[in-house]
Amino acid sequence: MKIQYIDAYEILDSRGNPTVEAKITTESGISSKASVPSGASTGTKEAIELRDGDKERFGGKGVLEACKNIREKIMPAIKGIDVTEQWEIDKTMIELDGTENKSKLGANAILAVSLAVARSGAKYSHLPLWKYLRNSLRFKKDENYDFPVPLLNVINGGVHADSGLDVQEYMIIPSGIKGFANRMRAGAELYHALRNRLAEQGFRVAVGDEGGFAPSLHSNEDALAQIANTVKSSNYELGKQVKIGMDVAASEFYDKKKDLYDMKLDQKQLNSKQMAELYEKWIEDYHIELIEDPMSEFDWKGWTDFNKQSGDKITIVGDDLTVTNKKIVEEAHKKKAINSVLIKVNQIGSLSETAQCIQAARNHDMSIAISHRSGETEDTFIADLAVAATAEYVKFGAPARSERVSKYNRISKIERKHHEIISFS
Ligand code: PGA
Ligand code: ZN
After folding, report:
1. Catalytic (active-site) positions
2. CB count, 10 Å around CB of 5?
3. What span, in angstroms and rounded, lies between the C-alpha atoms of 18 and 60?
4. Which of 257, 332, 298 is nearest to 45 (CA)?
5. End-to-end CA distance of the chain
6. Atom of ligand 1 nearest to the CA of 395
7. Structure confidence at residue 55 (pLDDT)
8. What's residue 421's pLDDT?
9. Which ligand has the shortest distance to the CA of 158?
10. What 3-state DSSP class applies to 251?
11. pLDDT digits (tens, 9 = 90+) for 143-169
12. What is the pLDDT of residue 390?
């Protein structure tokens, strides 16, 4: 079914900043929408999010230009192409833009259309989005797939909150529990238990951008201890059913000139070797399963050394390092820097390039985590993408706040349907 018309307009994201939504209408009159998220702690090699820069509107963050690019440049170029031709449509947009980082049309413009195209294709094919994506993006089917493990961000720091924590995210990982909805139950119960524990100690329990608490703790390690103690005093077994994870987002506090990591809260300036030693201690003491961005994107040696030290014990995830770019994933593989890749659709700016990055990770036996951004919309597209790609992990924030929970809920519902189909067949 051919594309007839594309509309694009500004909507607000979860932080109250404008973002792009695109709406595609086919010749048969079916329409589908998709919107794009926005990060705060971005990698320098991410595709460019086009912002108007007009300080009179949204402090310069308007996206009218990106919307106009969809209506006036992208629409004429892809009008008349069949909505199921995802690869051809993405390629056409990428060529129309012509830059390495999508700075001309804007990655936000291209991605909104790319995702809406996939939704249209799924509707036209009468398939649930995840199943359609599995076919169109050529992901492998896995009969034994037990849905992803959620990385639930329960304490927020870094640029996502004013907690003073240098580490950006502390996560509950219910990886020893079978079934997605059961994992979410554990995550939600522990989230509430953590809230009570923090409140009892007099810490504030207001939340940060991703729905995790933002207490002014005494040290970065204290956050790990708070979570570990919460799990220990619950019905869940720490280290077996539930583990702990961190997104350090270390690029944010790396001093490039001094080649040091400036942990302000701990009043420590550490080199990458000392950081690795610190992580090693935390891995042992707190049942850490996963660390994302342990080193800066400019510190490749730090990554390689850390992966050598700890890569056989824990999952080491590249985010700002790899920015969903298949070429950088290849480089990271060659340098033995990571064993897992974070996947964010807006870091690369099209669905087919996202699929290529996932493929690159798979070619090198790396696990993947499909991720939201700190600025999100109510669009649940990435939930379907995670199931389609049989992702090991999903990272959609805390088990609270609807822009996060809607994505987790979408996976729970796919899982429920899956079990229904199995029990009836
Ligand atoms: P961001 O944070 O969306 O602000 O980049 C998420 C992350 O670093 O994983
Ligand atoms: Zn990250």
Report:
1. 210, 344
2. 14
3. 10
4. 298
5. 32
6. 9
7. 98
8. 81
9. 1
10. helix
11. 999 999 999 999 999 999 999 999 999
12. 98
Ligand nearest to the CA of 346: 1
CA 24 to CA 86: how far, in whole Å? 13
AA identity, residue 51: R
CA of 3 to the centre of ligand 1 (A): 33
E strands within 161-314?
169-173, 243-247, 254-255, 260-263, 268-270, 288-292
Indicate yes or no: pTM above 0.85: yes
Interatomic CA distance for residues 38 and 52, integer angstroms: 15
pLDDT for res 156 = 95
Distance of alpha carbon 107 from alpha carbon 386, whole angstroms = 21
Using CA atoms, how far residue 126 sits from 28, 30, 373, in Å, is 14, 12, 29
CA of 4 to the centre of ligand 2 (A): 38
User: Which residue out of 46, 108, 319, 404 has the highest number of ligand 1 atoms within 8 Å of its CB and is therefore the one to mutate?
Assistant: 319
Alpha-carbon torsion angle 95, 99, 100, 102, nearest 10 = -90
List the structure tokens of 284. Answer: 């042992």
**Residue position matching structure tokens 């980082």:** 101
Which residue's C-alpha comes closest to atom 1 of ligand 1? 39
Say how many C-beta atoms besides its own lie within 10 A of residue 184's C-beta.
21
Residue 163 CB contacts under 8 Å (≥ 6 apart), including other chains: 155, 156, 157, 208, 214, 215, 216, 217
Task: Determine the distance separating the centroid of ligand 1 and the alpha carbon of 46, expressed in angstroms.
Answer: 12
For a mutational test of ligand 1's pocket, the pick from 168, 321, 394, i.e. the residue with the most ligand atoms closer than 8 A to its C-beta, is 168
The DSSP element (H or E) to which 272 belongs, if any, is: helix 272-286
> In the structure, which protein residues have their CB atom closer than 6 angstroms to any atom of ligand 1?
39-42, 247, 249, 319, 371, 373-374
Residues present in the chain in total? 425
Name residues whose C-beta falls within 8 Å of residue 121's C-beta, 6 or more positions apart in sequence: 83, 84, 86, 132, 136
What parts of the chain have a pLDDT lower than 70? Answer: 425
What are the structure tokens assigned to 220, written together? Answer: 């970065």
Tell me, what's the pLDDT at 425?
Answer: 63
Query: Tokens at residue 70, please?
Result: 């969809």
Q: pLDDT for 81-133, tens place per residue?
A: 999 999 999 999 999 999 999 999 999 999 999 999 999 999 999 999 999 99
Q: Of the candidates 51, 73, 4, which has an alpha carbon nearest to the alpha carbon of residue 32?
A: 4
Residue 59, Ramachandran bin (φ over 0: left; ψ between -120 and 50: alpha; else beta): left
